[in-house]
Amino acid sequence: MRATVLVIDSFGIGALPDADKYGDAGSNTALHISENIPGGANWPNLMKLGLGNASMLLGNDLPGCPAVDKPLASWGVMNEASPGKDTTTGHWELAGIILDKAFPVFPAEYPSFPPELIEAFKKETGRDIIGNKAASGTAIIEELGEEHMNTGSPICYTSADSVFQIAAHEDIIPVDELYRICEITRKLCDPYMVGRIIARPFEGSPGNFVRTSRRHDYSIALPGDSILDHLSSNGVKTTAVGKIGDIFNQQGIDKSWPDKGNPACLDRTAELLSKKDDKDEFIFVNLVDTDMIYGHRRDIQGYHDAVKAVDDRLPEFINLMDAGDLLVITADHGCDPSFKGTDHTREHVPLLYYIKGKDGVELGIRESFTDLSLNLTIFFSVEPFKEGNFFAL
Predict the structure, then answer these.
(1) pTM for the whole thing?
(2) Which segments constitute the Metalloenzyme domain (predicted)?
(3) CB 166 within 8 A of CB 155
(4) 29-50 burial, b if ≥16 CB within 10 A, otherwise e?
(5) Predicted local distance difference test score (pLDDT) of residue 392
(6) If you write DSSP's letter for every residue of 110-176 in order, what string do you get?
(7) CA 135 to CA 138: how far, in whole Å?
(8) What is the tens place of the pLDDT at every residue in 297-339?
(9) Of 80, 139, 276, 293, which one has the fewest beta carbons inside 10 Å?
(10) Where is the binding site for Mn(2+), in residues?
(11) Known binding-site positions
(12) What's the pLDDT at 88?
């Protein structure tokens, strides 16, 4: 048996009840994309699986992707129980870990980082920094890329997430050296409980800088076992695709494919599904482009088209599944491209739970993302995991 979970990064489906505390009241990634595309969203396979039905649980009809009479998948939406709206928190909760408090964030204004942290950074890495503020990743390399090339100082910046990001031109600071700097920074940031350190290599010349595919995330240590640990220890092969390995620090993962970008991750998923194995397998996939390339840049059409590219591959994935195999489509948070600012939005996420050969049923509004991890243990017939509630399938 195989279970594949596709996380369409930031594909939220409606503001959570506490979204106002985050400045996100009224956000709705899926709905606002659908409303801003002429003729509505063109996601026919997600529609057949029940994306429109899931949206209607929150009272929202998705233009172009309405509810259907008999969805192929079981459908619902999930409420994030953990505080926050970042990648690490969302993925960890999908994997059975609920956080008691949000990861801390740095102030947006210069200087964002505590002076003692920067002094330690300088001492341990032997380099000064430039930046030291919250910024869009593409904007800050345009602003400071030339200065970085002249000085050799890495561009250090943050965002509304709990991150310390380090951008460097590959000709000025080679990627291996950038990774070494990030490993040092990870240790320095552990006492501050920073969620992720992110290496952001780029190339090109002033006015024409481009980030490369060699991004690498260094997540804070997990506070305990995740569903990956639990399944692996119970004889289920765990396979990570995209940045899943980074998010979970490779913990509980038997095989990691760190493919970059949605096309490569979708190709890898198809390859994995085409291989038959006697051993049960859990395939955990992150599709980052919706968030990284389109959500943060508030590109509505680009976001829609990136979801369409996922939608186009779904019939292929379903054809590769055996009877009884599971395909789950969900998200980790929102990033409404029609909303103010450039940050994530605190939203429900869709839950499409398709077992090949089994009729779909309504799953309702779930209280936590951890319901997914618990029900994965039911699917694989292993001891139930520590958090979540059962689906009435």
Answers:
(1) 0.92
(2) 1-373
(3) yes
(4) bbbbbbbbbeebbbbebbbbbb
(5) 78
(6) SS-S-HHHHHHHHHHHS---EEEEE--HHHHHHHHHHHHHHH---EEEE-SSSEEEEEEETTTS-HH
(7) 8
(8) 999 999 999 999 999 999 999 999 999 999 999 999 999 999 9
(9) 276
(10) 9, 291, 296, 332-333, 344
(11) 9, 291, 296, 332-333, 344
(12) 94
Query: CB 244: neighbour CB atoms within 10 A?
Result: 25
List residues bridging with 219 in a β-sheet: 196
| Phi (first) and psi of residue 85, to 5 degrees | -155, 40
Give me the domains of the chain, ranges plus CATH numbers. 2-101+222-379 (3.40.720.10), 115-219 (3.30.70.1250)
Q: What is the mean pLDDT of residues 5-23?
A: 97
Amino acid, single-letter form, for residue 371:
D
CA atoms in the 13 A half-sphere facing the CB of 42: 12
Cα distance between residue 202 and residue 172, in whole Å: 10
**Structure letter (DSSP) for residue 382:** S
Q: Could you give the CA distance from residue 216 to residue 218 in angstroms, rounded to a whole number? A: 7
Would you state the pLDDT for residue 358?
A: 96
Residue-wise pLDDT tens digits, 286-308: 999 999 999 999 999 999 999 99
Q: H-helix or E-strand containing 282?
A: strand 281-287
Neighbours of 206 (CB within 10 A): 11
